[in-house]
Amino acid sequence: MQRILTAAQMSEVDRATIARGVPGLILMENAGARVYELLAHRFSPLAGQRIVVLCGKGNNGGDGFVVARLLATRARAAQLSVVLFGDPQGLHGDAAANYAALRAVDVEPIVVGDETAWLEVLPCLTPATLVVDALLGTGLRGPAQGLSARVIDDVNASFPDAKVVAVDMPSGMPSDTGEPVGPTMRADHTVTFTAPKVSQVFPPNCERLGTLTVAPIGTAESVFEALEGLRLSLVEAPDVAGLFGPREKSSHKGDYGHVLVVGGSRSKPGAVLMAGTAALRSGAGLVTVATAEGAAAAVVSHTPELMTIPAAEESDGSMGAASFDTGWLQGKTVVAVGPGLGSSAESSALVARIVGETQTPLVVDADGLTALAALENWNTKSKCIVLTPHPGEMARLTGLSSAEVQQRRVEVARSLATDKRAYVVLKGFRTLIASPHGEVLVNPTGTPAMAKGGSGDILTGMIAGLLAQFPDERPGLVIAAAVYLHGLAGELAVAEGTEQTLLATDLLKCLPEAIRRVRG
Q: Which of 64, 210, 231, 257 is disulfide-compatible with 55, CB 3.0–4.6 A?
């Protein structure tokens, strides 16, 4: 998993790397080289570009000096202007060394000390076709102000032909929150170093980066492992690819688990049908759907591969606690409960019984979560319980408002997971997977087209189907694989249609290609 860092953690990583014997000057050289490589790759030939490099007084500006030196020595035909905002005498350490190195290759930066000087030089810079933003980095505290804010606003408004490449962080963007705090440089590409920062992962700031490239600059993996504090990590395809290798030729359906999905009612058979079908499509060997008698025929007629347990109905067509038979659980590898179940008192009592009786991994979604939220206390014998709320359901589970959940998604998901010793999948843009020991994984896949009824039922089935196949793997990894594939299938479905026309069942049609892409 790609570790996501705060500004303080990033500073600690740099300090530890330097303490191990990698000089800061080398880290800065590597950082500048990674930006130069992106420029050469994306905007070749650089000889035809008019390039402006904007440098602040800190280490971010030092990175910019390296970029400018490499441009001057490797792309000599490019038109290059370098602007330093501040007194050169105020530069220190590695930034000062790279400022001197830049001048040593006959590049004399334009020194701008105030807004008047900036306005004088601005007309000469606006024809640029490339702007390298090395003005403010991850050390920013609070909103950009004064000259920096003016420069940000002017670049955003007055460089009509320029693509902007941000060094580590678009200037003005905070490192530790997805919420903007002031003027922020618009970026077409961002090259960040060592690891993504919190703001580069969460909305709305993550939507202002352009294309994000995470570039290694010389830090050993063991430095990350030594970091103290709770982990926040980004899921990437290679992390889960190992789950989707070829199956043993001698394997049989019993090797891939038996999922029980409990849900549905006479008036709502679709949700449990989608969850059951998704469990099958995800690779489970067997799937049984326990549903109301009035829904069972619809389930099996649509997907005959699904086995059914027609359960006695209440007067409203839903199942109640009296419908439950502990024999449902015998021989099952994973149980999923909730899709289409209904929210009557009897349905809630059924959920309480299943949660209390199940010893295998248990996935609770939809009406199952509503039932849990109504219980003062709930306990389970399950060795692995997975809760899959959307923000409204999370609000009911925690007693918070939906707005509070959205404002503190990582904190709220982690708190519920550790409190209930559960895996919590908080759905939405950048779905979170929080584990009982406090680790939180962030899923990068998905599309707004998936904001449609049934998408959550498909995810429930996929989580159950994968957990059934991989009982010996870390549950967090398996759940993350289901979430990643679910979002990727949505992206592929949109590529074949539009955001408006996607149906939840289209995710299953695109699941084979999603698996192939993850597998590589």
A: 64
Residue 119 has pLDDT above 90, yes or no: yes
Evaluate if residue 353 carries a pLDDT over 80: yes
Average pLDDT of every residue of the chain: 95
| 411-419, Cβ contacts within 8 angstroms, sequence gap of 24 or more | 413/440, 414/230, 414/438, 414/440, 416/387
Is the domain of 118 the same as that of 245? no
The residue type found at 224 is F
- φ/ψ of 383, rounded to 5, equals -80, -10
The DSSP secondary-structure symbol of 229 reads S
Residues 14 and 131 in one domain: yes
* Contact (Cβ atoms closer than 8 angstroms) between residue 56 and residue 135: yes
Cβ density class 122-144: b for 16+ within 10 Å, e for less: beebbebbbbbbbbbbbebeeeb
User: Is the bond into 45 cis (omega within 30 degrees of 0)?
Assistant: yes
CA 109 to chain CA centroid, Å, is 39
Is position 430 within any domain? yes
Domain that holds residue 208: 2-229
Q: Are strands 440-442 and 423-426 parallel, antiparallel or unpaired?
A: unpaired
CA-closest candidate to residue 194, choices 148, 164, 227, 171:
227
> Within 264-303, where are the H helices?
270-281, 293-302
Q: Identify whether the C-beta of residue 59 lies closer than 8 Å to the C-beta of residue 94.
A: yes
* Among 57, 55, 62, 13, residue whose Cα is nearest residue 197: 13
Q: How many CB atoms lie within 10 A of CB 206?
A: 21
Strands 423-426 and 432-434 turn out to be: antiparallel
Is residue 234 assigned to a domain?
Answer: no
Q: How far apart are CA 198 and CA 205, in angstroms?
A: 9
Query: What is the rounded CA–CA span in Å between residue 2 and residue 330?
Result: 39
What pLDDT, in 10s, does the model give residues 357-398?
999 999 999 999 999 999 878 889 998 999 999 999 999 999
Among 288, 292, 280, 235, CA closest to 445: 235
pTM for the whole structure: 0.93
Residues 134 and 275 reside in one and the same domain:
no
